[in-house]
Write a structure and sequence with these properties.
Blueprint lengths: L1 H7 L4 H8 L3 H29 L1 H20 L4 H15 L3 H11 L3 H32 L4 H4 L1 H15 L13 H24 L4 H21 L15 H31 L4 H7 L1 H21 L2 H17 L9 H26 L8 H28 L5 H26 L2 H16 L6
């Protein structure tokens, strides 16, 4: 449900734009208010779930998400919609950490865990990819507000099923809450994203934008210094001594940036440039969605059999090729050409989730895999937010019109695919794996310094 809502709103953006008189930056905030809040709160939510009970916290998340969805469907203005999307995200941030913690602690065998992660990734992939299709059906048949209504009955059913089938559990020794670290994460990610989105409108050299970027740099620097000295930090900097973990975090940023950028650019192109309805635009994404879902399953099996290296390289290559095919889009690009590009991109996007998670958890002690997974998920959500922010900023900052300005945006998406390949090569080599093994041994016995 949380994954579906990451993408289902994209196909409704043109309808929301017309109904609420939103600018490009307003559309960016509709998407990024959700992904950014999730990115900021994922690690905190994982710690709170360990402390107060995972089932209880999961149900609170479902309730919050459902209430946020109801509020979004009743919103009278763009500002309120953005605010209620943030409320949705608070609930969404309470869902994913629990799921990953269950997987990591239930499946102890490496191959079995890889298969489980692949299945989890395929479900996430289906929900992410199915959003535009379902959204198109709802927007064309009922209206844009209906994309939020659908979450309410699903949320109620999930609450009941959780009560019936999920046993309560909590950590024996829950981590201390790190409020300073949490505030610095919010400041760093929030200021960076706001600066990118608002830069074209206010001017990149204007005082507010310069201040936002300066605040982001200061907060990120302070976060590293502070967390390196805390006994139980929100972001454990020791994990980044592992080259596979650091590589997986960066791969998550670049890979999910391509997905965020793809969905944002594609829905505006199909509806505002080609003039297709929301339903038609959603149906045209089925090839991409089908490939993403199918190759998510393939990735899980591939990682279980031969490790994450091949899957990461293939993923980045396909993402780059698929996005490169879209660099020269015009208002009259042949439909078969678009479908080919969607198929290639979807295959690449589907291959990336399982190897990212597997690489991030490489060498990690089992009792710390939940925290490591939450940090890796935070980087992925950050990438999705930045993908929308950067591609939208390119569109908003150009006076050449959407089609021409989108060429540069697609080039950025393609370059992110190249980065996935390069980072995949570096983070899965013999040297990288040796750093993961050494770091895992240290983490198993090390005690963090500081208060």
């Amino acid at each position: 449900m949380a994954g579906l809502d990451t993408t289902i709103v994209n196909v409704a953006l043109p309808s929301i734009q017309h109904a609420l008189h939103a600018s490009v930056s307003g559309l960016q905030w509709i998407i990024d208010a959700y992904t950014l809040v999730i990115a900021c709160l994922l690690m905190l939510s994982g710690s709170l779930a360990d402390r107060f009970g995972r089932r209880r916290f999961f149900q609170i998340g479902l309730i919050t998400f459902s209430l946020g969805s109801l509020a979004c469907s009743l919103t009278p203005s763009l500002g309120w919609l953005i605010a209620f999307r943030g409320l949705q995200a608070i609930g969404g941030s309470m869902l994913n950490p629990v799921a990953m913690s269950i997987i990591a602690n239930t499946f102890t065998d490496r191959a079995a865990r890889a298969k489980a992660i692949g299945l989890w990734g395929s479900v996430a992939g289906i929900s992410l990819a199915g959003g535009p299709v379902l959204g198109g059906l709802l927007v064309s048949g009922i209206g844009w507000r209906s994309i939020f209504w659908i979450n309410i009955p699903v949320g109620l059913i999930a609450i009941a099923l959780t009560q019936r089938f999920v046993p309560e559990s909590r950590a024996e020794h829950p981590r201390q809450l790190d409020l300073p670290g949490q505030l610095l994460v919010i400041a760093a990610l929030g200021c960076l994203t706001a600066g990118i989105i608002e830069g074209p409108r206010r001017g990149w050299d204007s005082a507010p934008i310069v201040a936002l970027f300066a605040c982001a740099i200061f907060a990120a620097t302070a976060l590293v210094l502070l967390e390196s000295r805390r006994r139980e930090p929100l972001v454990d900097m020791r994990y980044f001594r592992s080259a596979p973990f650091s590589g997986a975090a960066l791969i998550g940023v670049f890979a999910l940036a391509t997905l965020g950028g793809f969905l944002f650019l594609n829905t505006l192109y199909l509806q505002n440039v080609r003039g297709y309805s929301a339903l038609h635009a959603g149906l045209l994404t089925i090839p991409m969605a089908a490939m993403l879902a199918a190759f998510s399953v393939v990735a899980g099996r591939l990682v279980a059999r031969s490790g994450p290296r091949l899957s990461l390289i293939a993923s980045g290559g396909l993402i780059s090729v698929g996005a490169s095919l879209l660099i020269g889009l015009s208002a009259h690009t042949a439909m078969w050409y678009l479908i080919v590009a969607y198929l290639v991109y979807g295959a690449g996007a589907g291959l990336v989730s399982a190897p990212i998670t597997n690489t991030a958890l490489s060498g990690m002690p089992r009792d710390q895999s939940g925290v490591a997974g939450a940090i890796a998920s935070t980087f992925r959500q950050t990438g999705a937010a930045l993908g929308v922010a950067v591609t939208g900023a390119i569109i908003a900052g150009s006076s050449a019109g959407f089609v021409i300005s989108s060429h540069a945006a697609w080039a950025v998406v393609a370059s992110c695919g190249v980065m996935v390949v390069l980072l995949g090569l570096v983070s899965t080599g013999r040297w990288a794996l040796s750093t993961a093994e050494r770091n895992g041994a240290r983490l198993a016995t090390d005690i963090s310094p500081g208060p």
